[in-house]
Amino acid sequence: MDGFNENDIRHVVEADKAHVWHHLTQHKPFETTDPRIIVEGKGMRVWDATGKEYIDAVSGGVWTVNVGYGRASIADAIRDQIVKLNYFAGAAGSIPGALFAEKLIAKMPGMARVYYANSGSEANEKVFKMVRQIAHKRHGGRKRKILYRERDYHGSTIGTMSAGGQTERNAHYGPFAPDFVSVPHCLEYRAQWDLSGEAYGARAAEAIEEVILREGPDTVGALCLEPITAGGGVIVPPEGYWPRVQEICEKYDILLHIDEVVCGMGRTGTWFGYEHYGLRPDFVTLAKGVASGYAAIGVTVTTEAVFEMFKDDAGDPLDHFRDISTFGGCTAGPAAAIENMRIIEDEALLDNTTAMGARMLANLEGLMEKHRVVGDVRGKGLFLGAELVADRASREPVEERLVGAVVAECAAQGVIIGATNRSVPGFNNTLTFSPALIATADDIDAITDTVDRALGKVFG
Ligand SMILES: Cc1ncc(COP(=O)(O)O)c(C=O)c1O
């Protein structure tokens, strides 16, 4: 770093180009262009290394920065905590660990215990391990299968990819762990049954029951679902789906694992996505918005009934949850999470999310009337998608390069939006939006006006 000056931004760009391997990125183009380097953020806005300002309509790219950038109070909470105690392994407790768990559980009737880790993938892996351990303890090893849904995503590790319903994400990374079994998706716009509305929802849930009966209910331990599928196309399950899913889980004694890594912490206008549907999950996993990206944190939340199964034979040295998460002992995560939650409460961000989400959905519906290429818009709260089709009647997806062109045109005009990316073959055609929960009406209108212009430019 000889002679390095942090204002020498060209040096930063060259260092990045020479040494950083970016996630989900083909690097060949950077031989002739520069990667985007984000240097600063404030509220809904970020600035890149060239000084260009953007409205961030995707909360840090992957629906994470729920309370927006530049929150000094979160930085202060982290600093104060890590100067006092930065770390001790999770076999011991910590002040913020205990207090955040208490605050979180108070929002989750029926839940009782919080296990700390540091990413969404890791939080989900913990559930899979708990389910397997319960199978061995209670069911002679039989009830060990974990069901997951087509188009859902639960993480980047081999374990979570074994529960990955996005075949492009998984391609070339197998073989995966055994006894993970897929169930059909529930996206009515891409209907698998000639039904609609509530009847469609109930049928899609019954498709899960068919898989359970095929596999043998005594072999199925858990069902892992996103409340609203995120990267697989912003899929809001139809009416009629969730009540049947809950019934099916109860009928066959299957633990229900809701992956709230994206929906959790206000994204859909309630603290958790599952609240919209009155679900009673056995496991809930949270990460991204828990500390809005100010610190890395992932949590696995479960019931007292599940927790009890890991302490009922204290004389057996193998009876407890024999898992280690080194960085689950970092105190920055829960310290940031407490302050993050206070901000959501004190600034009434759940109400704002509901109001601004309704505005954004209405704006997107307006774009659907104006641009034939918008085949469907869907979502809840500030978690929305617009599916682009070449032909409305056949619903044939537009070419992926055109979706990319819309995203690039929005960025050129100063708005960062997302798109389903390396998810389901042929269906990387949904634009995605997840602005911070602090978005104002002007921010929302600026985002959708830009999308309007970009659609006009790319599709005429
Ligand atoms: C629904 C869902 N679950 C889990 C994960 C994995 O989280 P992480 O990237 O923190 O491991 C993601 C990440 O995008 C996600 O969208």
From TrEMBL:
Pfam families, A to Z: Aminotran_3
Cofactors demanded by this protein: pyridoxal 5'-phosphate
CDD domains: OAT_like
GTP-binding is among the record's keywords: no
Domain of life of the organism encoding this protein: Bacteria
Gene transcribed to yield this protein: tpa
Family named by the database record: Belongs to the class-III pyridoxal-phosphate-dependent aminotransferase family.
GO molecular function: transaminase activity
UniProt organism field: Sinisalibacter lacisalsi
Protein name as catalogued: Aspartate aminotransferase family protein
Keywords: Aminotransferase, Pyridoxal phosphate, Transferase
UniProt entry tagged with the keyword Disulfide bond: no
